[in-house]
Write a structure and sequence with these properties.
alpha/beta, Aminopeptidase, Alpha-Beta Plaits, 2 domains, 8-stranded mixed beta sheet, 4-stranded antiparallel beta sheet, 12 helices, globular
Length: 422
């Protein structure tokens, strides 16, 4: 690695370690939920780092942060690069954070060249931190990129509530975000996101760079069984309307049906909220978050039909009432062919043979691509495929490879080496 590359890697490591400490607890990973105090602290560190490097900071009404480099003037097109700083509860350090900070590091490197008159961009560049990508505190996920891309109305996003009944609007205001400020850039000509793979494909193939061709679809269902609260002691068994029993039957049926009929789909029942949540009270309300992921939207529809019937059966057998609170589909995304080609060329120029692959997880790049913004998604390896866990890890040499490729791609795009029409 040459001296310039060493300097870039050291700069990224320093800011990465600084932000990774925010919300971290020994043995418990990082908890930095969207619009929390920890999220606000990380945002402040990011903003200060970017401002000291010469960026103009802005944020929109849903809290998306933009570190803007107005290199080519107000009438020039924009290139975006970034990811998200929010995490899952007890999550890993790399998911999202690496993408924001690598983009910031690449932008600062390019800005140094602009100031030295060694680089004359035709387009402006913004490094973006998207709000609530994870969907851990507020649902749906991809909230900020969804609002920016037009898929989610701003008013609806701001009215989302967390488990404590706090709206996203109030949570953002608590960390100093109350409306748009700073001159938010318009829709970009292209968006690029660097992300850890969260799988083992790159490692098994012996590659350091993945170029994402497309993503899986995701069907997400929020299901509630409503029973009747009662004393767990004297209430006769025949009189009980146990919502938790209904939910348990529903989860078991979901697992059995999908495993038997659609074993290649990825399935989960990952969150359960019960009320009133007392050891001496029969559960009155049980809410479960179910998820199916696959390549074929039609198959997700077929798979869900018997599942919904099983949920109804569980309600009937337990004397409870079923409510389908939400049943949403995130369409699969096919990433932009032109940007994929540029990314592949950049990887080879940096000495890495890229591997085309698909992403099972959703990313902010998906929201932008599906809204018509040409987008690229670059993967670097995840050790053992671990994600959303404190042991999440990407080796330094793979981080360096991702940064090199991302910087090369952004240089080409800022130079104007991309035709969105092709």
């Amino acid at each position: 690695m040459d001296s310039a590359a060493q300097k870039h890697a050291a700069s990224l490591t320093a800011i990465f370690d600084h932000i990774s400490a925010v919300g971290a607890r020994a043995g418990e990973g990082v908890t930095r939920l969207a619009a929390s105090a920890e999220d606000g602290a990380a945002r402040a560190i990011f903003a200060d780092w970017m401002a000291r490097g010469g960026a103009r900071l802005a944020h929109d009404a849903v809290g998306n942060q933009f570190a803007c480099f107005d290199w080519a003037g107000e009438n020039a097109a924009w290139i975006f690069a970034g990811s998200h700083l929010d995490t899952q509860p007890r999550g890993g350090r790399f998911d999202g954070t690496l993408g924001v900070l690598a983009a910031g590091c690449a932008a600062l490197d390019l800005h140094t060249e602009v100031q030295a008159d060694r680089f004359r961009p035709r387009h402006n560049l913004a490094v973006v931190n998207w709000t609530n990508e994870e969907g851990a505190r507020y649902q749906p996920s991809l909230t900020g990129s969804g609002v920016f891309s037009g898929a989610l109305p701003l008013r609806e996003a701001l009215s989302l509530t967390d488990g404590a009944g706090i709206t996203l609007s109030d949570a953002l205001a608590a960390i100093g975000i109350d409306g748009e400020t700073g001159g938010v850039p318009p829709r970009p000509k292209a968006y690029v996101e660097l992300h850890v793979e969260q799988g083992r494909i790159l490692t098994v193939a012996g590659r350091r760079i993945g170029v994402v061709e497309g993503t899986w679809a995701a069907r997400k269902m929020m299901v509630r069984w409503i029973g009747r609260a009662a004393h767990t002691g004297p209430t006769p068994m025949a009189d009980r309307r146990d919502a938790l029993l209904a939910a348990a039957q529903g989860v078991a049926a979901f697992e059995a049906l999908i495993a038997a009929r659609h074993p290649h789909l990825h399935r989960s029942a990952a969150r359960l909220v019960i009320e009133p949540n007392s050891p001496n009270v029969v559960v009155e309300r049980a809410t479960v978050w179910f998820e199916l992921r696959g390549l074929d939207v039609a198959e997700l529809d077929r798979a869900g039909q018997p599942v919904l019937a099983a949920f109804e059966k569980a309600a009937a057998e337990t004397g409870t009432r079923l409510e389908i609170i939400a049943d949403t589909l995130r369409e699969p995304a096919g990433m932009d062919i032109g940007l994929m080609a540029i990314t592949g060329e950049a990887a080879r120029a940096c000495g890495f043979e890229p591997l085309p692959l698909r992403s099972v997880a959703g990313h902010d790049a998906v929201a932008l691509q599906n809204s018509g913004v040409p987008s690229a998604l670059i993967f670097v390896p995840s050790v053992d495929g671990i994600a959303h866990h404190p042991e999440e890890l990407t080796h330094p040499e793979d981080v360096e490879a991702g940064l090199a490729v991302l910087t090369t791609v952004l240089r080409r795009l800022a130079e104007g080496d991309f035709d969105a029409e092709r």
